[in-house]
Amino acid sequence: MPANIPTAPNDAPTSAAWADELIHRYAQSGPRYTSYPTALSFSEGFTAGDFTAALARSNAGQRALSLYVHIPFCRKICFYCACNKIATKNTALAEPYLERIDQEMALTSRHLDHQRPVQQLHWGGGTPTFLTLDQMSHLIDRLDTRFGLSSDPDRDYAIEIDPREADVLTLRHLQSLGFNRLSLGVQDLDPQVQQAINRHQPRVLTETLMDEAQRLRFRSLNLDLIYGLPLQTADSFAKTLGQIIELNPARLSVFNYAHLPQRFPPQRRINRDDMPSADEKLAMLRITIEMLTAAGYVHIGMDHFARPDDSLAVAQRNGTLQRNFQGYSSHAQCDLIGLGVSAISRIDDSYAQNSSVLDHYAAAIDEGRLATQRGLRLNRDDLIRRDAIERLMCDMRLDLAALGERWQIDAPAYFRPALASLDQAQQDGLIVLQDNQLQVTPMGRLLIRHLAMAFDTHLPNQDKPNYSNIV
Length: 471
Description:
Strand content: 15-25%
Subunit structure: Monomer.
Organism: Vreelandella arcis
Helix content: 25-40%
CATH class of the largest domain: Alpha Beta
Number of domains: 2
Strand order of the largest sheet: 9-10-8-7-6-5-4-1-13
Number of strands: 19
Oligomer: single chain
Keywords: 4Fe-4S, Cytoplasm, Iron, Iron-sulfur, Metal-binding, Oxidoreductase, Porphyrin biosynthesis, S-adenosyl-L-methionine
Mean pLDDT: 91
CATH topology of the largest domain: TIM Barrel
Distance between the termini: 30 Å
Shape: globular
CATH superfamily of the largest domain: Aldolase class I
Radius of gyration: 22 Å
GO cellular component, one term: cytoplasm
Subcellular location: Cytoplasm
């Protein structure tokens, strides 16, 4: 590791501390808390009018903006995929969609103070690199016209890339458009696993793009991996991890595959007999943490890892890390505007989600109205609990005294039921509660979703099978 990179803290369970029985006991389903309350609490009683009112209220806070653009198209379906996507090879189908995105921008931006900087931009999908280079340029121009994009070197402008759909020319074009961070989907480098999930992607495709990204001085590069896929074993996944460590990405997201074929039809193409057992998946998780921390990565929390000098790790050390619908973010306190089918916005004290059905989204925009299908305006209790859950999941600690000061409450008394429900977690060594400080232990980082659930008052009324397993 270069001498100027700070050493990673001891933030992973040691072999002696690792307890398979304990993890199995806590391995229930639960939210990822990219929002609180979660999307299952959104109501169709929340309308486009409620969303525009939230946009107007948000101007008073003068928070910077974060823009998310959902591009639902991809050329080929991966069997594990749980995203909102449309499989097609016809890039012309993107044209009317992009026109509607522009109309949505116009409908949204008219309610915003145009002096608010766009500090964060994220294109997700689907496969954003499904778009042609000209279409990408056109979309950036429209975003700049409607919102005013930033040239600040501290901006965080990211795009998800399918290495099978991009080349070095694509990266050069993205850099010219202002993107400074890339996220590459890899999932697994084992050819047999790739065949089982319908995603043929030789290592050379990923390696070539990473080399070019480094040459072009992109600020940060993330790789996505998934454990628990068909035909994976602990040994085979360790080989993939070894190759990934050689490639030295700044960030890694190592997701637990959630097999929910009843909700995501492409997953029905996966042979359940090829799926690894719960014990094998746990072995993969253990190997992942051991190998990545040994290689110098900081375990940010759950399934995210970063080099100590990456902005995610720096933000966590500074207490400014945030959760949003794209996961962990180094840009705290931005108002998030989601554009496109199924996109979710977090504005002021409200969440708003567009229709997840393309035809319904298109019909709304064509009628000159926002495509808001559902959402939620948070009450004071929701806001307090959102703050608590976010700080717990981002800082891996919760300062009850500071929380109480921010909200003018007696936080230990306010959260007495939640803290009482964590007694067993404290006995099991997942947390330490002392002097109004709740500190998550290394083992607790793996189960942070369970710890956060203690503060969630909406969860008892929800159907837990709608959530993936915690580990």
